[in-house]
Specification:
2 domains; 390 residues; disordered N terminus; alpha/beta
Length: 390
């Protein structure tokens, strides 16, 4: 596996004469993949390269407009073989019309189209492998396109290990580049009291109660049920637990969680908050942040965001969290699905004295600054491009 060293993006642009990079993904709605695409496009623009993005569009195209990056609207959300085949020719046209020097695919269905378009055009092809995905025989074949890049970017060492195990990717093609945070947004010093007060009132939080927070969409594998069980085992009446995230139509699951909380006698401690537009302020309201995923996450953005905001983390001991959370230094790692172990960790987190909390807060912030900034992610990504463009 190759860890790409930091590089100067301006030098990269000089080496390649301001090359044009086409990034391909299904749509520009919201999410880590979409955010990373815009961040890299911004870095390309700042370095004097040309950024082109092909997708089915979405609200984040406005961010591309601000940096004069070209967006090409293509029907890249479909997974049917007919749609994928039709998109090969469409992407070939994009490559030709925009004089594209390199293609970077960020999702499986458009990657199949982008791979053949890049090969026909004779330009390098890069992929970013974002998720553990599934691996029955059909999915194994479908996922394989993400391992066929001239460079394959894994978002964590955990993902890099899966790629090596399933697809035998050679070491010189495999690069680990963790996702990056905008540390000017996720900065405790940048959050005003007014923002915190507004959110606290919206959620009806009391100032005298420590807050346990689990951010993440309402879906079973995110582990909200495990947290509710842990809250019951914690046995404290002086806390508030906020579950932040939309149910995205999973009303039955939300009802199930509410019934579980009532059955365990903790429903009065629990607040369900839908999508939050100010997560930096949300983290500042938390005394401890939980990432309770019962299935391993490829990276686990919540744990890193919380550390950037100086908040201790309780995360499950698998996937990307093993790399991003430093056990007993920036948080605690607990067995996935083990409510008793989670309750014990929550108890320790809530019992920290001021000096211990400050020490852990400083460790978490420094961990994010040293390893997970958007600048570092973009520098490493542009270094990958440069390595292929000569």
């Amino acid at each position: 596996m190759v860890m790409v060293a930091q590089s100067n993006t301006g030098d990269a642009a000089a080496d390649t004469g301001g090359a044009t990079v086409l990034q391909v993904l299904p749509a520009l709605e919201t999410g880590g993949v979409e955010r990373g695409t815009v961040q890299v496009a911004t870095a390309l623009h700042q370095a004097g390269w040309r950024a082109v993005v092909a997708s089915a569009g979405g609200p984040m195209t406005r961010e591309l407009d601000r940096i004069d990056a070209a967006h090409v609207d293509l029907p890249l959300t479909g997974k049917s073989p007919f749609r994928i085949h039709a998109n090969i020719e469409r992407l070939q046209q994009v490559i030709a019309e925009h004089n594209v020097d390199l293609v970077h695919a960020r999702s499986r269905a458009p990657a199949w189209s982008a791979y053949y378009a890049a090969r026909r055009a004779g330009v390098p092809f890069v992929t970013t492998y974002h998720s553990p995905y599934g691996h029955n025989w059909l999915k194994h074949w479908y996922n394989a396109i993400m391992a066929r890049g001239d460079r394959v970017i894994a978002i964590s060492n955990f993902i890099a290990g899966l790629i090596r195990r399933h697809y035998k990717v050679e070491a010189d093609r495999l690069v680990t580049i963790p996702r990056g945070l905008d540390l000017s947004i996720f900065d405790p010093q940048a959050v005003t009291q007014a923002r915190m007060i507004a959110l606290s009132r919206q959620w009806n939080l009391r100032a005298d109660r420590p807050v346990i927070m689990l951010p993440g969409r309402l879906t079973r594998w995110k582990g909200q049920g495990v947290l509710i069980e842990a809250l019951a085992r914690l046995g404290r009446e002086d806390v508030a637990c906020v579950i932040v995230g939309s149910d995205q139509g999973r009303e039955a699951y939300r009802d199930e969680l509410e019934k579980l909380a009532a059955a365990r006698g903790v429903d009065h401690l629990l607040h369900f908050a839908d999508h939050c537009r100010d997560m930096a302020a949300a983290y500042m309201l938390a005394d401890v942040v939980v990432s309770a995923s019962t299935e391993p996450e490829g990276f686990g953005r919540v744990a890193v965001e919380a550390q950037a905001m100086g908040r201790p983390v309780v995360a499950t001991d698998h996937g990307g969290s093993r790399e991003t959370v430093r056990h007993r230094e920036t948080g605690w790692l607990v067995e996935p699905g083990n409510a008793e172990e989670m309750a014990e960790a929550l108890g320790v987190a809530l019992s920290l004295n001021e000096e211990e909390r400050r020490w852990m807060s400083e460790n978490g912030r420094q961990n994010a600054v040293d390893n997970y900034s958007v600048e570092l992610m973009c520098e490493r990504t542009l270094a990958v491009y440069r390595s292929l463009l000569g």
